[in-house]
Automatic annotation (TrEMBL):
<dbReference type="GO" id="GO:0004497">
    <property type="term" value="F:monooxygenase activity"/>
</dbReference>
<dbReference type="Pfam" id="PF00067">
    <property type="entry name" value="p450"/>
</dbReference>
<keyword id="KW-0479">Metal-binding</keyword>
<keyword id="KW-0349">Heme</keyword>
<keyword id="KW-0408">Iron</keyword>
<dbReference type="GO" id="GO:0016705">
    <property type="term" value="F:oxidoreductase activity, acting on paired donors, with incorporation or reduction of molecular oxygen"/>
</dbReference>
<dbReference type="GO" id="GO:0020037">
    <property type="term" value="F:heme binding"/>
</dbReference>
<dbReference type="InterPro" id="IPR017972">
    <property type="entry name" value="Cyt_P450_CS"/>
</dbReference>
<keyword id="KW-0560">Oxidoreductase</keyword>
<feature type="binding site" description="axial binding residue">
    <location>
        <position position="440"/>
    </location>
    <ligand>
        <name>heme</name>
    </ligand>
</feature>
<dbReference type="GO" id="GO:0005506">
    <property type="term" value="F:iron ion binding"/>
</dbReference>
<dbReference type="InterPro" id="IPR050121">
    <property type="entry name" value="Cytochrome_P450_monoxygenase"/>
</dbReference>
<dbReference type="InterPro" id="IPR036396">
    <property type="entry name" value="Cyt_P450_sf"/>
</dbReference>
<dbReference type="InterPro" id="IPR001128">
    <property type="entry name" value="Cyt_P450"/>
</dbReference>
<protein>
    <submittedName>
        <fullName>Cytochrome P450 monooxygenase</fullName>
    </submittedName>
</protein>
<comment type="similarity">
    <text>Belongs to the cytochrome P450 family.</text>
</comment>
<dbReference type="InterPro" id="IPR002401">
    <property type="entry name" value="Cyt_P450_E_grp-I"/>
</dbReference>
């Protein structure tokens, strides 16, 4: 006792004791929190990995690594259709939960605050990140005007060399530049010309960093992002500045663009009832979003599409035959009845989006006051609920041999044994652009881009995987190769896809 008293009278010891006291309190509180989350939390009876039930940092770590979609699949295989994937989060793997309960218009949910990270400014949310339903409705109406019928398409793509096979072309990069150019045209009335010139090709890799940054909402919320993400912020700021300059350039162009671009639509939009309009900053944050949401999603899907076709010669030959039989010349290839008649081509696009959904991770929603029934269970207010498209689209109950690229599954045909019932079921579950009030606004554009790019390519060219593809070399057991990707906010290819082209023989 006298020893303790003398320790307290010494300022150094006093400080040490205080620190020890604080540490004791923290350890004590943490233990209580762990016990509470494991045994007394309202979600404690739902199955799932214990570490995920204890701390948000575990799923956050998986998300940062880009593997959350794979882990999520593993969890659902182990624990069933409902998994507690974080202390306050439930993941569902069931079509009814996805289509009717969580994402539909009538669901009693809203976006979680964590979406704030998807806007370039904390004070100016964009269409994707905004939580307030009225502001969202205004922003979405504005974009909808722009995207309703603007599925305009790519101008010229690959070098037209007749005769011999071209040198290998990395389709992952080409697709990225192509889609960026197109989106530039739609937003600012002029292409970025990444296909033609290398000067702006530094932009797309930064968007991948932004997509990864999107997986760190907790760090962002605590305003620690500028410390922990400092190495990537330099690049992200350069991209932000570059987009701001494009917005200014576009302002200087005034009314001189031929067709109304997205910029003019946003600049003119007014919500008279609530006295709302777009500030320049809003246009900037919206542009940053559209460059992310409209590019990597589509270009990754396009790369997956080419990947699987180059690995499946029967499917490649069938889609080539179909397109060459339907179209008489390349100028005919545009959105319309002939493209819609390419049934096998559409099946290939569906299959690529099924295996590699552009947004593979579960999009979280917060249950509002009064709770929400999901999958027949009453979920309390404040819980985060979500469903991952990647996991749902790999469920054998809906898709036979779910890991296989098999476009035939989308077409009723006695010779393949595909019956109407299974096609209908697949179509019911399949929603790569999500559903409901927060579903993808650019789906029509993306769908036509994908169909058009494939139709045009196989109409004009023969294509093949360049010899020595790494995926095939690594594949020692003779299994089918799979398109490898990381699941950040958007699916991101891990490897190059090197393809060779040869101009098709002239039409007879
Ligand atoms: C294959 C391509 C694409 C896929 C797979 C895709 C997928 C999705 C998905 C799943 C969502 C819902 C996210 C959520 O639950 O919150 C979404 C939202 C969105 N997408 Fe896409 N997308 C694609 C292309 C595009 C394009 C081309 C654009 C525009 C240029 C675009 C713009 C948006 C926007 C603005 C939202 C937010 C909508 C809202 O919250 O109201 N997307 N997309």
């Amino acid at each position: 006792m006298p020893q303790a008293e003398s320790a307290r009278s010494n300022p150094m010891c006093c400080q040490l004791l205080l620190t020890q006291d604080t540490a004791n309190v923290i350890i004590h509180k943490s233990c209580l929190l762990v016990v509470y989350r494991l045994f007394f939390h309202p979600l404690s009876h739902y199955p799932g990995p214990k570490l995920a039930a204890i701390t948000n940092w575990y799923p956050a770590f998986l998300a940062w690594r880009g593997d959350l979609h794979l882990k999520n699949l593993e969890w659902h295989e182990k624990y069933g259709d409902i998994v507690r994937s974080a202390p306050n989060t439930l993941y569902f793997n069931d079509s009814h939960a996805m289509v009717s309960d969580i994402y539909s218009t009538r669901a009693n949910v809203c976006k979680v605050d964590a979406w704030a990270i998807y806007s370039a400014s904390r004070r100016s949310p964009n269409t994707l990140s905004v939580v307030d339903k009225d502001i969202h409705a205004f922003k979405r109406r504005t974009l909808a005007t722009a995207f309703s019928d603007r599925a305009r398409l790519l101008s010229e793509d690959m070098d037209k060399k007749a005769g011999n096979w071209s040198p290998g072309i990395n389709m992952v990069a080409i697709n990225n530049w192509l889609i960026f150019d197109l989106i530039g045209d739609i937003i600012y009335g002029r292409s970025f010309q990444m296909l033609d010139s290398p000067s702006k090709r530094w932009i797309p890799p930064i968007y991948i960093k932004m997509s990864r940054r999107g997986m760190t909402p907790k760090i962002y919320k605590c305003k620690l992002d500028q410390i922990f993400l400092a190495p990537m912020y330099k690049d992200i700021w350069s991209a932000g500045t570059w987009v701001r300059e494009r917005v200014k350039d576009r302002m200087d162009m005034g009314e001189s663009v031929e067709e109304k671009d997205l910029f003019s639509i946003m600049a003119e939009a007014k919500d008279k009832k609530r006295n709302r309009e777009y500030s320049l900053k809003d246009i900037w944050t919206e542009s940053m979003l559209l460059l992310a949401a409209g590019t990597d999603t589509t270009s990754t899907t396009m790369s997956a599409l080419f990947f699987y076709l180059c690995h499946d010669l029967d499917a490649l030959s069938r889609v080539t035959g179909e397109v060459r039989a339907i179209f008489d010349n390349e100028d005919e290839i545009c959105a319309g009845p002939k493209l819609n008649a390419c049934q096998f081509l559409q099946a290939c696009v569906n299959e690529a989006m099924r295996l590699v959904p552009g947004v593979p991770n579960a999009s979280p929603r917060r249950v509002l006051a009064g709770g929400q029934f999901v999958d027949g269970k009453h979920i309390p207010e404040g819980t985060t609920v979500a469903s991952s498209l990647y996991v749902l689209f790999r469920k054998a109950e809906y898709f036979k041999n779910p890991d296989d690229f098999w476009p035939q599954r989308w077409i009723v045909a006695p010779e393949t044994g595909v019956i109407e019932e299974s096609v209908n079921l697949a179509k019911k579950v399949f929603c790569p652009f999500s559903i409901g009030p927060r579903s993808c606004i650019g789906w029509k554009l993306a769908w036509i881009e994908l169909n058009w790019a494939l139709a045009r390519t196989v109409f004009l060219y023969d294509m093949r995987l360049a010899p020595g593809a790494q995926c095939c070399l690594d594949n020692k057991v003779g299994k089918k190769c799979h398109f490898n990707f990381k699941s950040f906010s958007i699916a991101t290819p891990v490897s190059e896809l090197v393809v060779q082209f040869r101009k098709r023989k002239p039409l007879a």
